[in-house]
Design brief:
extended; 3 strands; 87 residues; 30% helix; 15% strand; single chain; alpha+beta
């Protein structure tokens, strides 16, 4: 299941943690629909009680969520290169 950035943030606000999925976990847990994607990165989503979410349970959790998220912080500005003074 592909997640949006907002869904990712809501799940985190509800106490879920995201662990990067190893290739063997992806192959083993994809059929159980326990692998979630944010962009190109695969994750397993774990509740506080240790349960790994499935697509169905996480979808339900997100649908029932009444969470107000703080605004997302803007990305820090890119570093500016300063030219060296002439010698």
């Amino acid at each position: 299941m592909h997640l949006t950035r907002e869904q990712f943030r809501i799940a985190e606000a509800l106490g879920c943690s995201f662990q990067p999925a190893a290739p063997e976990q992806i192959s083993r847990l994809s059929m159980q629909r326990r692998v979630f994607w944010l962009g190109e990165q695969a994750f397993l989503v774990q509740r506080r009680d240790g349960f790994y979410e499935t697509a169905a349970t996480l979808t339900r959790l997100l649908q029932d969520a009444k969470v107000e998220l703080p605004p997302e912080e803007p990305a820090p500005p890119a570093p500016v290169e300063v030219a060296a003074p002439p010698a």
